[in-house]
Amino acid sequence: MNTRIFFHISPERRGIILYTSVTVTGIRGLPLIQKGDDLPRLIIEKCALEDGDIICIASTIISKAKGYTRNLKDVIPGDRATRIAEKTGEDPRFIQVVLDQACDVLIETPFTLTEVSCGHVGVRSGVDASNVEDGLVITLPADPMKEAEEIRTEIKDLTSKSCGIIVTDTCGRSFRRGQTGHAIGWSGMSAIRDFRGDSDLFGHTLEITEEAVVDEIAGFANLIMGESNNGVPAVHFRGIPAWTGHNDIYFREGEDVIRKALKKV
């Protein structure tokens, strides 16, 4: 699936080219990933890269390549997992894996919302029983930023091209139905494009505008990847202009009003 997008950027505001064409291409033909597979090498065999390209990779295939899976038959659920599973109707062994991956549990039911060690907050710690062999569950990479950097480095070593890498996970959103792609790891770019100090069309100084560009790209990548059996776990972007900003994408505990509210429930 190829998608071409045209958008206009004002040269007076950002000092860059007037028109940019962004090409978004699903990387098809990758095999079913197994532990030990060399993802960067498999990707470059299916995709010709240029400097400045961005590749979004589903965390699922990174976890499968690195062996970040658990076999439920080897999991013994504890009292907390058993209690939660009785309320949610889920396998207590699955819930035990969720708790094992979590560094904080924000709510237990009607679904288990947790924070994992990298700072990402999501349902069931991102543990997934889909697109994996029966009896296994996939866990998120413990350090997705490191995974992104390793993939970026290997791709540069193999191709001499400097590309950005975004590791994605599919998550729900507060206040809305439906899931979208989120960035949980990235390398070669900043997470946030910072507009603070810039001015709007009427000359007003922007004081709070920070754009989560990596999440926007991850969300579009998820549209191309699809769900279920679509079989497109990586997406290639070309033509996205570079941006400046920072990586402070997660609210600190004291700043997060939603976390505070959930803790009171």
Number of separate strands = 14
Q: Mean pLDDT across all residues, rounded?
A: 87
Instruction: Output the strand order for the largest sheet.
Output: 1-2-13-3-9-10
Question: Which structural class best describes the helix and strand composition?
Answer: alpha+beta
Biggest sheet features: 6 strands, mixed
Low-pLDDT residue intervals, each spanning 5 or more residues: 1-19
Distance from N terminus to C terminus (CA atoms, Å) equals 44 Å
Rg from alpha-carbon coordinates: 20 Å
What gross morphology would you assign? globular
Could you tell me the strand content as a percent range? 25-35%
Specify the helix fraction band. Answer: 25-40%
In DSSP terms, counting alpha (H) and pi (I) runs of 4 or more, how many helices?
8
Order of helices and strands: EHEHEHEHHEEEEHEEEEHEEH
